[in-house]
Amino acid sequence: MKLSSVDYYLNWPISIKLKNLRKFIIANLEKKGDLIRWSIVDIQDSIDSFGTKKLKIKVVLAN
Q: CA-CA distance, 3 to 17, in Å (whole number)?
């Protein structure tokens, strides 16, 4: 088993409420590989008018 650590950037749309954020993040990260652990490192407001935020997530995947 090979572990890899990557920084992943994900747009957080305004339609996703805070209580559903974990499920949204996991659903997107599982597309990249077998998820071992993850953590939100940074949240930035977007400059667009849609109100989305950009999440920087540190991810450890098993391949």
A: 31
**Length of the chain counted residue by residue:** 63
Token code pair at residue 23? 């499920």
Which residues lie below 8 Å from residue 29, measured CB to CB, with a gap of 6+? Answer: 8, 35, 38, 57, 59
Looking at residue 28, its pLDDT comes to 95
pTM of the model as a whole: 0.86
**Rounded Cα distance, 2 and 63, in Å:** 5
Residue found under tokens 């805070």: 18
Average pLDDT, the chain: 92
3-class state of residue 28 by DSSP: helix
- Pick from 34, 38, 2: which is nearest to 21 by CA? 38
